[in-house]
Amino acid sequence: MCGFLDKIKEECAIMGVSLKCEEAVGAVYNGLLALQHRGQEGAGIALSHNQSIIIQKNTGLVNEVLTEKVLDKLPKSRTVIGHARYSTTGSNTNKNVQPFLTEYLTGRIATAHNGNITNAKQIKVMLEKQGLDFSASSDSEVISSLIAYNIISNRDLLKGVIEAAKLLKGAFSLVLLTGDKRLVVVRDPHGFRPLCIGKNEFGIAAASESCALDSCGFEFIRDVMPGEVIIIENGEIQYSNVELTANKQGLCIFEYIYFARPDSIIDGLSVYEARFNMGRMLAKEHPIDADVVCGVPDSGLEAAMGYAYESGLPLVSGFVKNRYIGRSFIYPSQLQREHAVKIKLNPLKANVQGKSIILVDDSIVRGTTSAKIISSLRSTGVKEVHMRISSPPFIHTCHFGTDIDNEKNLIANQITNQQICERIGADSLGFISVEGLKKACEKCTLPFCTGCFNNDYGTDSVEISKYQLES
Questions:
Q1: Exposure winner among 4, 248, 332, 336, fewest CB in 10 A?
Q2: Exposed (0-12), middle (13-18) or buried (19+): which is 160, by Cβ within 10 Å?
């Protein structure tokens, strides 16, 4: 459902590769393609060449920015990092696309970041007082500058990274490229955002999700531990230790609900298995007599499978998805705007006409998309539509890298569940409980941040605006 207006989006994807051969550019490119679902606003790579770092980035999709012509002109490299961006802080302009290059007296680094730093503005003010300049409005540029500043102050890469990371509050999974071809991997001590390590005969890769490792020939080894700092050189891990600590840990549970690809494994739990279990829990918590179960493509499909399995009802395809329209379809008329959902999702009339259906989706944010989907089903002559949602209602914003709307705009804060049901045009509505959601994800090796559902964040939250660096 990514692309509809009331679907939540994630900030970005990161990847870093260190090889014993000069084929890292292609590996990172393939990995970013596999991670495209995490961010579609911008993409870029940074590669080491001789003693310099070369950056290629722009707004757009990975294959639009890193075209065959562009890649052919880049020198071969053993160490490369990459990024695919969705902005939750900083406007969507070229200057905010990552990786960020920071040059200093004794060297240079490039940084790619997934997450959101809640004290970025304060750090930026502190660095400006030390004479540092900033050209972007992204917290990721602040991270890169802070690390460079601390490398100079400590006269050591490892100490500089650790001391800089100790000052950061919020979510940060990082890959860092140095001018001397070292790759540094860091995950914040809370473990908000996923990060994993893979290996093959040629070297080491780090990525936001294991699906990226699979796509470019790396065997998944393990997740990066919360607070861990890893240094990789010449395709081998040279240093690894948990250097950062926190009072609480909490992986964003929405990774399992929506963000991640179903073929990824995050912190010990298969995303597919988690979503299947969410559907089973929904069937237990909100059973209903109906004819068939169908899921809203794409992230509602696995939960629908689980609901059908637990309930014993048939699972059918309720929609045909148009996978070839890209991002830029337009609405020339008001009539077309009113039927915008059908451009991407068209109900499969043969499967739903005259039937009572259980419709499973991953979330309801403002309710506009759900209403349009149900309306499109009604036009086929369905008998009943019973909506089931594999996330609890959103009632709080997120400070750590998820683009959840202002709390005033969240439909669950405006009206009751029964009123939501009436507004979207469903015959019944059921959300999974927070307890049921945690039960579905119980094989995860980390506790969860569920702050957007119940105000239980993985750390003390800070009231900040996503536009903090643009004010």
A1: 332
A2: buried
